[in-house]
């Protein structure tokens, strides 16, 4: 291996783009590939906004990872002189089953993420436009908020190119990546790439590219997002007066107000049916719209009958345990698989990219929580 290894990163979303940037900064020569471009509408890093928050329930590493990611988002926002992070706060509403919220408290504290515990009286005083029926208490993260998704994914790749990285828009055309016998990576433009190491960060396509290694532990699900218009002349539902919110009621709902006038974003986090990210039709369902309207009238009464401005169908690439995959392929130690964002990965992009770049450059191994061996009944033998 030379002092400047050539590393090919496949996928220019939140995981791949940041990984490529940190690999480049770590001294590698990096080629970054994407089929339709960073932040495209089929990617899991497409769309306008994502939540960045610290609450994650009990027994997890993600609160600390989110804290590191937030620091890096702020650093890059200053470096690139572009605003991606909007610290409007994040509110968690806890009902009778408050396992998630209660379990989050020590992890928020340990990660150094500011938060407040609020009773219903205080919740109602601060946000009278929200109906807190059935809510017992809440967590408010005043320094959390939301991120611009598509715009930041594109900006990361722009910065990668500006710092000397090579970006190519092309699709991987390999038929059998699992074999480990291939010496070059064929692309859709009939060219090939030969690298010292390969990082596949292809989001919802990982299960198809690696049907034996990833496929059994991975599914892409269809998720619907809705944007509603706030009442004219009524500022109660804009981002100056309502934080990002998550509501663990009978099922988990979340939303982001405002964002450049795009409307009041509402989504159901319940995992939808399996979805093909390449060919799937991205039309919302009437049932989905009706359910979101019912919820909106219940929790935000002033938004009852609000006009629907925009809709989006995206996908989560879920692992069976909702944890990320960061590991070498068992049949090819020069091939890394990075993915399984599971609906919560975007915010972690810079921290995950930083971590993956160190692992790949130093030829180290990720925490077992992220390893493929966790899906097996017995640990895989080390190489």
Tell me about this structure.
There is one protein chain. This protein is an alpha/beta fold and 383 residues long. It has a single domain (6-375), classed as 2-Layer Sandwich (D-Amino Acid Oxidase, Chain A, domain 2), CATH 3.30.9. Helix content is 25%, strand content 26%. It contains eight helices and 19 strands. The chain has helices at residues 14-25, 62-80, 99-111, 120-126, 150-162, 206-209, 286-299, 349-362, and strands at residues 6-10, 29-34, 49-52, 85-86, 90-94, 116-119, 137-141, 145-148, 166-169, 185-186, 192-193, 197-200, 218-228, 244-248, 252-256, 264-268, 308-319, 325-329, 332-339. The strands form four sheets. It has an eight-stranded mixed sheet. A six-stranded mixed sheet has the order 9-2-1-12-19-18, covered by helices on one side. Residues 378-383 have low confidence and may be disordered.
């Amino acid at each position: 291996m030379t002092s400047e290894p050539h590393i090919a990163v496949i996928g220019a979303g939140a995981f791949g783009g940041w990984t490529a940037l940190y690999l480049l900064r770590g001294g590698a020569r990096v080629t970054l590939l994407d089929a339709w471009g960073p932040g495209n509408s089929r990617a899991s890093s497409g769309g306008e906004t994502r939540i960045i928050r610290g609450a994650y329930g009990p027994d997890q590493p993600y609160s600390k990872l989110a804290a590191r990611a937030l620091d890096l988002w702020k650093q890059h926002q200053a470096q690139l002189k572009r605003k991606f992070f909007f610290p409007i706060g994040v509110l968690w509403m806890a009902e009778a089953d408050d396992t998630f919220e209660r379990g989050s408290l020590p992890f928020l504290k340990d990660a150094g993420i500011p938060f407040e515990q609020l009773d219903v009286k205080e919740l109602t005083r601060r946000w009278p436009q929200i109906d807190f029926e059935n809510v017992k208490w809440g967590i408010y993260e005043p320094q959390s908020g939301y991120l611009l998704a598509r715009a930041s994914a594109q900006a990361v790749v722009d910065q990668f190119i500006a710092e000397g990285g090579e970006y190519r828009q092309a699709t991987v055309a390999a038929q059998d990546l699992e074999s480990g016998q291939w010496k070059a990576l064929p692309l859709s433009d009939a060219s090939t790439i030969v690298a010292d190491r390969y990082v596949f960060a292809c989001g919802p396509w990982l299960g198809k590219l690696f049907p034996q290694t990833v496929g059994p532990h991975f599914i892409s699900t269809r998720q619907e997002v809705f944007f509603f218009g706030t009442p004219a002349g009524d500022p109660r539902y804009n981002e100056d007066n309502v934080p990002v919110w998550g509501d663990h009621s009978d099922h988990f709902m979340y939303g982001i107000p405002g964002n450049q006038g795009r409307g009041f974003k509402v989504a159901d986090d319940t995992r939808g049916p399996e979805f093909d990210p390449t060919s799937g039709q991205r039309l919302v369902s009437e049932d989905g719209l009706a359910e979101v309207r019912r919820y909106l009238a219940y929790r935000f009464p002033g938004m009852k009958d609000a006009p629907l401005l925009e809709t989006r169908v995206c996908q989560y690439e879920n692992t069976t345990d909702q944890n990320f995959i960061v590991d070498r392929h068992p049949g090819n130690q020069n091939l890394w698989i990075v993915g399984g964002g599971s609906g919560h990965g975007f915010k972690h992009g810079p921290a995950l990219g930083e971590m993956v770049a160190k692992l790949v450059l130093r030829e180290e191994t990720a925490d077992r929580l992220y390893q493929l061996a966790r899906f097996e009944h017995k640990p895989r033998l080390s190489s």
